[in-house]
Amino acid sequence: MSLSKQLLTLISALFLLIFSLNFILSVNNIREYLQGEAKIHAQDTATSLGLSLAPYITDPSDHGIKAMINAIFDMGYYKEIRLVDNKGIDLVLLGNDQKIEGVPDWFIEYLPMSSATASSEISSDWQIRGVVYVTVNVNYAYLKLYAQAKTTFYYSLAAFIASIVLLSLALRITLASLIKIDQMALALANGHFVTIDNLPWTSEVRNVAKSMNVMSQKIQTMFTALNNQLESIGSGLLRDELTGLFKKSVFETDFNHTSPNNDDAFCVLLKFDSLSELAKLKDSQTIDNYLRNFAEILRNVTDQQTEYSAKAYRFHGAEFALLVTNSHPDQIENLVLRLGRQFSELGQAYQHPDLVHIGVVPIHSISSLENILATVYEAYEQAKLIGPNRHFIRKSADAARDMTEWTELVSECVENRRYSVVYKNRIKDVQSAKLLIEEAVIEIFDRQAMPVAIAPFIAIAENTGKIIDLDKGVFSQVLNHLRDKLEPQALALNLSTQSIKDAHFRLWLTRQIDQNPASAKRLVFSLSAYAVSKDIETYLEFIDLVHQWGSKVMIKRFESLSLGSAILKKLRPDYIRLALKLTTGISHSQQKQDFVQTLQTLASLIDSKILAEEVNDVDDLHTLKTIGILGANG
User: Fold this and answer.
1) How far apart are CA 155 and CA 70, in angstroms?
2) Among the three residues 120, 144, 162, which one is the final residue of a domain in this structure?
């Protein structure tokens, strides 16, 4: 019960007690007053009647006596008038036991009043000739008492209601500031750093509001500092310290999220042929300048392009690469020719004209990272055979299947549901080793019982419009598994962006969840950080929907600078699973430790838990445990 309701109930009860006591006392006072008035009235009537009968009492048979008594009795205010002589013999006896209408019996029962009786002696010739007794009819007193009680009750009720209304308004005004503070506390818990501008006038509540404002500002400052620290550390993890180019790990991530259409993406490998020989002739500072100048050429070429997109990377040592998208072979040809000329000029400046050779290979939707790297190294070797500072462009990257074969395989597997769902990547609590989450992964084998690569299979399914049917099939199998096996751990499930964006799929998914509410509470929807970053609003809407179902959300493959803290604060995922590169060797990398520690602190502010994947090194696991992440698999 809210504070306002508690106060309203308590004060209303006190008001009710006060008004009830006041009403009871008022009615009792009126009753006592009426009883007193009845006695006085009876005595006045008896005295008046005694004086009036005195001239006639000498002759008890005089008809004037009874006529006079009847005239008074017929007024109806009396229950009984009795006249007796000096010997106690009744001369006149008039009575009226009729009840008056308009007064309920329960009222008479709970407020008893006795009939007032008065007497007056009648004298004649200095002798007492008789006594007259007058008893007032109490029904008239009850009628007045009942009317007064009703009037008092209605006025008291009106005053009580008016008091409650005024009290409610006063409490609402007084406690409105507390409601604002409550809303502010909830906003802070949700990561919204609001303040109360119009401070309340109640001094105690005003001080609380000021304290809340100070706390909100401090938390916002800390959150901003953590965000800046996260971006700073993350940027350092992504870029090569010497050249400022992106590292090979970034290339791998970008490659995995490249969606080439036809032949619009290319991988370009650039490699020094004899850096080790040059290092023997030059000092380390000269070599460093040499590498920086080399990287500057790559950076200038990529930054100046407007017709296509290009990104430069340094793999290690003398190996560099470009990932080019939205391009075509003629543009690639011009690009590598231009690079060859500039590198030749750079080589001549260092008396080493045969500087670099370039290998180029196109990227297709069915290309794997391993296949592309192997093929581009072959292209590089071909370029070495051609001549100094030359390049070789392969027309295609060899693949086990061509596009037609892939399309047929995907269609056949999806339509006939010729795939299975296995549960692996078991994430355990790093402190207790308790199993927290398993991940549902599909396995596919071709007609020759050979495993099919999942990445190109998913890519072809998306390109051929089969991905939604695939997601439906996988989700149905996962639901069946949850119903059949009542285990405590949660189950992570992957969905494609196409499915998440599709309104019909969401409707179908909602119906499945509604039919399986218990299973929904064990579901964790696993979303790629890269995919989320490309369509924040769509995923924000989907995450809100998932939380309405009672399910949870995990942002997987989270890398430095994948999603900013402001976006994480909006998304509020239940879990953030770090990319492998952030945890591998973390025990020996202070930079990685600082990044994960900062992310852990930031995640605690938005009620998210940090997870790690494939932690196989004991020292790395110990470091992550010390930082305070929730779980890891390995």
Assistant:
1) 41
2) 162
Q: What are phi and psi of 124, to 5 degrees?
A: -155, 130
Residues of the chain with pLDDT under 50: 262
CB-based contact 344:275 (threshold 8 Å): no
| Domain coverage including residue 46 | 3-162
pLDDT digits (tens, 9 = 90+) for 481-513: 998 888 888 999 999 999 999 999 999 999 999
CATH number for the domain harbouring residue 359? 3.30.70.270
What b/e sequence results for 546-569 when a residue is b if at least 16 CB atoms lie within 10 Å of its CB, and e otherwise?
Answer: beebebbbbbbbbbbebbebebbb
Same domain, 342 and 478: no
167 within some domain: no
Structure tokens at 10: 């308590």
In a domain, 178, yes or no: no
CB 524 within 8 A of CB 495: no
For the chain, the distance separating the N- and C-terminal CA atoms, rounded to the nearest angstrom, is 48
The helices-and-strands tally (H runs, E runs) of the chain is: 22, 18
Digit-coded pLDDT (tens) for 133-169: 999 888 888 888 888 888 888 888 888 888 888 888 8
Given this model, what pLDDT does residue 279 score? 66
Report d(CA 254, CA 82) in Å as an integer.
Answer: 119
Indicate if 489 and 408 belong to the same structural domain.
yes
- Identify the CATH number of the domain in which residue 428 sits: 3.20.20.450
pLDDT (tens digit per residue) in 581-611: 888 899 998 888 988 998 898 888 888 999 9
| Residues 276/301, Cβ–Cβ less than 8 Å | no
Boundary (domain end) residue, out of 333, 368, 393? 393
Is position 499 within any domain?
yes
Coil vs helix vs strand at 392: strand
- Taking phi over 0 as left and psi of -120 to 50 as alpha, with beta for the rest, 417 belongs to left
333 and 424 housed in the same domain = no
Q: Are residues 431 and 383 in the same domain?
A: no
What is the reported pLDDT for 59? 80
- Cα–Cα distances (Å) from 161 to 11, 14, 19, 147, 375, in that order, read 12, 13, 11, 21, 87
What's the whole-model pTM score?
Answer: 0.66
Q: What is the DSSP string of 294-352?
A: HHHHHHHHHHT--SSEEEEEEEETTEEEEEEES--HHHHHHHHHHHHHHHHHHHHHTT-
